[in-house]
Amino acid sequence: MAEKIKITTEFIKLDALLKFANLVGSGGEAKQLIQNGEVFVNEEVCTMRGKKIRPGDKVELDGQEVIVE
After folding, report:
1. Is residue 1 pLDDT above 90, yes or no?
2. Which end of the chain is less crowded, N or C, counting CB atoms within 10 A of the terminal residue's CB?
3. What is the Cα–Cα distance from 25 to 42, expressed in whole angstroms?
C-alpha cells in the first residue's frame, strides 16, 4: 500500500521528497539512487534530481510507494 505524503507547496523536488518521506537517509544517497535509475516517478524511471513532484504524482523506490497529496 502506498504511503501518502502531504505537501503544502506547489511542488517538491524529487531528491527532497525522498528525504522527506524517509525513503533515504541523506541527500547524497538520494542523488546516487536517482542517478542509478532506481527511482520511478509515475511508473517511469526518473534520473533528474530536481524533477518537480506535484500532488497526484507517485514516486517509487525499492518497492515502497509514496503518493503526493
Report:
1. no
2. N
3. 22
